[in-house]
Design brief:
The protein is of the alpha+beta class. It starts with a helix and ends in a 10-residue tail after the last helix.
Length: 154
């Protein structure tokens, strides 16, 4: 999503209503690098907009995805995450805590350079990296430190 104003213009041009809830969803998404789920956005909105429904949030996210304003990330079978950064980039996902981070490093990958069997035309691709983030690794190291036996007293 480039910015709220250009997205509002696109919505108006497509004869879509620019509701208060949609504007609030756009505000949450603008410059958001946390890759929120529909439920994350719904919970965030619910505090100030008690009348908002989960269906409204979900439908708005799907609309924005179809319009190319955000990307829908399917990283697991439980829920989709939404990314307002629509440029070609990759993600690092921590298998410990589930945090999703953008990888800003460029790789020499492009649709033109990738030849995939069984496709006459490749339209897009997604590459995600899974591992343990530094925070989870540090936590794991602390947990692995030698623990004193229960009978030991200081």
């Amino acid at each position: 999503m480039k910015d709220i104003e250009s997205t509002k213009h696109k919505l108006r041009s497509a004869a879509m209503k620019l509701t208060k809830q949609r504007i609030e969803i756009l505000k949450i998404l603008e410059n958001n690098r946390s890759h929120p789920t529909a439920m994350d956005i719904y919970k965030s909105l619910k505090t100030n907009q008690p009348e908002v429904s989960f269906t409204t949030v979900y439908n708005t996210l799907e609309l924005l995805t179809k319009m190319g304003e955000i990307n829908k990330l399917i990283l697991d079978f439980e829920r989709a995450h939404y990314d307002p950064d629509v440029r070609q980039h990759y993600h690092a996902i921590c298998t410990g805590c589930g945090v999703i981070s953008d990888i800003d490093q460029s790789f020499d990958l492009s649709i033109d350079k990738i030849k995939v069997q069984k496709f006459s035309q490749l339209t897009e691709f997604h590459i995600d990296f899974f591992g343990i983030c530094e925070k989870c690794a540090d936590l794991s190291k602390k947990e692995k430190q030698v623990k004193k036996p229960a009978f030991y007293s200081a």
